[in-house]
C-alpha cells in the first residue's frame, strides 16, 4: 500500500517506519527541510529505543522515503495520515493551525480513492470538519476520512505499535474500514481487536483513554499523600486493591505527578471540550489540579525535613518526565529545580539522556554530572525524580561515603524503606511507611 505520513514528529516517524517495516511503501513528509535532510542521512530527531536502526534499514530497502514535497507524494497515496502537532493554546484548547494548513494543501492533490486519516490527537468534531472542508475544496462528495488515534507510549513506541492492545478507527464511509484493516492486519492477533466506530467516538476514545489513565495516577497520588498522614503504606494498599480484577495493578504507581506531552495537554483539552459544550468537567479539573500539586510534593518533603535550604547541595537523579525518553515536556524535575533554585540550593543533576534538553531550557543554573554517583559529591541529600533502571540497584555503601548527609527523597518509591532505615539512611518516599 502507498502511505504518506505528514508530520515526522514522534508519532508520525514511529508509525511511518513501522508501516514501512511491514512491507508498505511509505513517504514521510515534513515542511522542515533540515529534519528531512537529516532523516535521509539516518539522523533521527528523537530518542526512541530501536527506532534509528529501523529507519535506516527501511530507508535502505527503498520502502521508506523522506520528502518535503506534497506534489510528489500525495497524488499516488492510498492512505494519507496526518500526524502534525496539536500544541496546547493559552486557553487549554488544542491549536489546529498546522492541521488545517495540511488539509488545505492536500485538497487539490487528492486522488478519488485516497483515505485521509487523522493520527494527531484532535478535539471531538475535527474529523467531521475535515470531511466538510475537503468536500468543499475538492467539490467531490466521495471523500473518505478516518480518525485513527494512537496509543503509543514514549520509550516503548515500537513495541506498542507492533503489538497494540487494540486498533481504533472512526470512519465516515465503511469502504475505508477494509483498507485500514488490511494495513493493520500484520499487527493484529486474534485477541487484539480492530474496532471501527463513528468519527466522534474514535476521537473521544483517545481522550478518554488518556484521561482515565491520568485519573488513575492523580487518584493514587492523592491516596499516597493520605497514607503519609495516617501511617499506612501505599505499596501494601496497592497490593490490597490490585488483586481485585476490577481495579488491577497497572498505572497505580504513585510518584511526583504525570508529565509529558500527552496527559497534561489532553486532560486540559477535554476540560475545554466539555466547557464548550456547557459542561463543567469536575473530575478532570481535579485530576489536573492534583497533578500540579503533586509536582511539588518532593519539594515540600525536602523543605519540611531540611528546613532552611539556603546554600545546601542537593543531588537530583532523573530529569526526563519518565525513563527511556529524553522528553522533558511538563517534567516534574523542572518544577522541583525551580523551587530549589528559589531557595538558593546548589543542584547537581544527572540523567542518562535528557541533560542536553534541560541545558537548552535552563542553561547552567544547575551542575550537570556525567555519572549519577558524581552528583552525590558533598550533597546534603539525594532526590530521585525519574525511575531510570540504572537507579534501581545502586551501591548504597558507596553512596554513604559520597553523600554528606544520608538522606534520600525518593519520588518514585524505588527502594525498600525498611532496608534503607537498617542501612542508616533517612529515606522519604511517596506514601511509604518508614
Ligand atoms: C501516554 C499514554 O500512555 C499512551 O497510551 C498515549 O498514546 C500517549 O500518552 C499519547 O497520547 O501520545 P506517554 O505520555 O508516553 O504515553 O507516557 P506514559 O508511560 O503513559 O506516562 C505518562 C506519565 O505518567 C509519566 O510522567 C509517568 O511517570 C506517569 N505515571 C505513569 C505515573 O506517575 N504512575 C503510573 O503508575 C504510570
TrEMBL record:
Q: EC number(s)?
A: 1.1.1.22
Which biological processes are named by the entry's GO terms?
A: polysaccharide biosynthetic process; UDP-glucuronate biosynthetic process
Query: What residue ranges are annotated as transmembrane?
Result: none
SUPFAM superfamilies registered for this protein in UniProt: 6-phosphogluconate dehydrogenase C-terminal domain-like, NAD(P)-binding Rossmann-fold domains, UDP-glucose/GDP-mannose dehydrogenase C-terminal domain
Q: Tell me the keywords, alphabetical order.
A: NAD, Oxidoreductase
The active site of this protein is located at 262
UDP-glucose/GDP-mannose dehydrogenase C-terminal domain mapped to chain residues: 315-417
Catalyses which reaction(s) = UDP-alpha-D-glucose + 2 NAD(+) + H2O = UDP-alpha-D-glucuronate + 2 NADH + 3 H(+)
An example of a Pfam family matching this protein is: UDPG_MGDP_dh_N
Q: Which domain of life is it from?
A: Bacteria
| Record: residues binding substrate | 151-154, 206, 251-255, 259, 322
Q: In which pathway does it act?
A: Nucleotide-sugar biosynthesis; UDP-alpha-D-glucuronate biosynthesis; UDP-alpha-D-glucuronate from UDP-alpha-D-glucose: step 1/1
Q: Identify a single GO molecular function assigned to this protein.
A: NAD binding
Q: Where does NAD(+) bind?
A: 30, 35, 86, 121, 154, 265, 329
Determine if Oxidoreductase is one of this entry's keywords.
yes
Regarding protein family, the annotation reads:
Belongs to the UDP-glucose/GDP-mannose dehydrogenase family.
Protein's name according to its UniProt entry: UDP-glucose 6-dehydrogenase
The lineage, from the top, is: Bacteria, Pseudomonadati, Planctomycetota, Planctomycetia, Planctomycetales
Amino acid at each position: 500500500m502507498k502511505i504518506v505520513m505528514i508530520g515526522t514528529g514522534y508519532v508520525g516517524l514511529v508509525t511511518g517506519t513501522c508501516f514501512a517495516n511491514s512491507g508498505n511503501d511509505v513517504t514521510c513528509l515534513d515542511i522542515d527541510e533540515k529534519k528531512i535532510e537529516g532523516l535521509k542521512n539516518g539522523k533521527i530527531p528523537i530518542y526512541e529505543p530501536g527506532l534509528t536502526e529501523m529507519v535506516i534499514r527501511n530507508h535502505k530497502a527503498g520502502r521508506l522515503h523522506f520528502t518535503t514535497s506534497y506534489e510528489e507524494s500525495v497524488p499516488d497515496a492510498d492512505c494519507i495520515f496526518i500526524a502534525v502537532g496539536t500544541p496546547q493554546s493559552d486557553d487549554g484548547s488544542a491549536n489546529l493551525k498546522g492541521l488545517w494548513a495540511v488539509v488545505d494543501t492536500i485538497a487539490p492533490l487528492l486522488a478519488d480513492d485516497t483515505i485521509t486519516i487523522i493520527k494527531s490527537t484532535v478535539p471531538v468534531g475535527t474529523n467531521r470538519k475535515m470531511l466538510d472542508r475537503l468536500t468543499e475544496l475538492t467539490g467531490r462528495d466521495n471523500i473518505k476520512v478516518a480518525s485513527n488515534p494512537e496509543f503509543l507510549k514514549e520509550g516503548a513506541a515500537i513495541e506498542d505499535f507492533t503489538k497494540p492492545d487494540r486498533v481504533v478507527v472512526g470512519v465516515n464511509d465503511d469502504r475505508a474500514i477494509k483498507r485500514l484493516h488490511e494495513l493493520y492486519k500484520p499487527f493484529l492477533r486474534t485477541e487484539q481487536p480492530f474496532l471501527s466506530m463513528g468519527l466522534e467516538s474514535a476521537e473521544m476514545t483517545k481522550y478518554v483513554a488518556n484521561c482515565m489513565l491520568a485519573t488513575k495516577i492523580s487518584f493514587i497520588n492523592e491516596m499516597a499523600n493520605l497514607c503519609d498522614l495516617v501511617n499506612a503504606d501505599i505499596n501494601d494498599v496497592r497490593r490490597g486493591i490490585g488483586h481485585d480484577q476490577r481495579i488491577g495493578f497497572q498505572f497505580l504507581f504513585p510518584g511526583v505527578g504525570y508529565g509529558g506531552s500527552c496527559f497534561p495537554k489532553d486532560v486540559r483539552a477535554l476540560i475545554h471540550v466539555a466547557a464548550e459544550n456547557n459542561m463543567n468537567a469536575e473530575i478532570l479539573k481535579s485530576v489536573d489540579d492534583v497533578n500540579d500539586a503533586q509536582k511539588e510534593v518532593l519539594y515540600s518533603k525536602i523543605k519540611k525535613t531540611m528546613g532552611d535550604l539556603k546554600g545546601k547541595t542537593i543531588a537530583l537523579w532523573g530529569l526526563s518526565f519518565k525513563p527511556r525518553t529524553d522528553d522533558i515536556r511538563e517534567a516534574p524535575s523542572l518544577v522541583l529545580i525551580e523551587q530549589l533554585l528559589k531557595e538558593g540550593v546548589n543542584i547537581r543533576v544527572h540523567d542518562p539522556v535528557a541533560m542536553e534538553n534541560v541545558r537548552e531550557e535552563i542553561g547552567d543554573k544547575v551542575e550537570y554530572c556525567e555519572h549519577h554517583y558524581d552528583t552525590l559529591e558533598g550533597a546534603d541529600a539525594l532526590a530521585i525524580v525519574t525511575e531510570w533502571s540504572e537507579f534501581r540497584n545502586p551501591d548504597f555503601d558507596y553512596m554513604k561515603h559520597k553523600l554528606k548527609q544520608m538522606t534520600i527523597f525518593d519520588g518514585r518509591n524505588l527502594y525498600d524503606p525498611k532496608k534503607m532505615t537498617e542501612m542508616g539512611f533517612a529515606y522519604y518516599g511517596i506514601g511509604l511507611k518508614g
